Amino acid sequence: MLTPELLHALRNLPLAAKQAAEGFLAGQHLSRRRGAGMEFSQYRPYQPGDDLRRLDWRLAARSDRYYIRESEVDTSLTVHLLLDASASMNHRDDNGLTKLEYGRLLLAALAYLAQNQGDAVSLSILHPEGLVHLPARADARQLPRLYQALQNTTGMGRFPEAAQLAPLLARRQRALTVCVSDLYEEQGEINSLLTRLRTVAGDVLLLHLMAGNELTFSYRGAVTFEDLETGQTLQLNAEDQRRHYQEQLQQWLRTTAHTARRQGLDYFQLSTAEPLDGALREFLRRRQATSFH
């Protein structure tokens, strides 16, 4: 299991994505369903109306019974990847990674996984200077495009305004949307976007990214905190505030998860201190469920 800091240390996003995804899959293909594909799965008795081209004549000659060969075929769908690139994603964990760097690694690995499953993949990077959007494609050149866009991404400003996000909400075919964000927002703008995407495009997997030092409050002594989006600062003593901070944080996390799930989003919390595997597993679980809708 490769740690996120080891993947980041490769300084090669395509290689890191491949290492993370293939290390996780370990040769397994998790998105298959029975059908008339190429890879044999099992037999079942012939029923009137079945395609006679799938009938196993050799087995019929031996058993005097007619059986249909069921095969496995790859399922595929459209996967929309969204990355929150507001300035709060520049927060750095004790392992040296920012949330944005972790998010880039994660979405690159998810893009690799999705294309490996035969899916069409798109990418939208959300920051105040304008929406960076790569339309969904399933061709071999899509991954390099996505990697390049992710590598060029820097965190800045606040989450974009609704008018800038309008192109994401154009009515589209059913898809699986995956959003990586720390959910630091002023007026519920991230939640509003994802709820509307749930309405127009189907399933939404929200990967709520927190830094390890945010979750554990690993600071010591007198600390000055700065809001990366507003520039406001706050001075405090870490030991005096630790208990109150952790109580408030856990309450916020519970409320955030409850709100997301109540509005039909699939919510999963992850930490920049943890390997990518939990999020990759959640993606494949949600992808498989979406494929069978």
TrEMBL record:
<protein>
    <submittedName>
        <fullName>DUF58 domain-containing protein</fullName>
    </submittedName>
</protein>
<dbReference type="Pfam" id="PF01882">
    <property type="entry name" value="DUF58"/>
</dbReference>
<feature type="domain" description="DUF58">
    <location>
        <begin position="42"/>
        <end position="249"/>
    </location>
</feature>
<dbReference type="InterPro" id="IPR036465">
    <property type="entry name" value="vWFA_dom_sf"/>
</dbReference>
<dbReference type="InterPro" id="IPR002881">
    <property type="entry name" value="DUF58"/>
</dbReference>
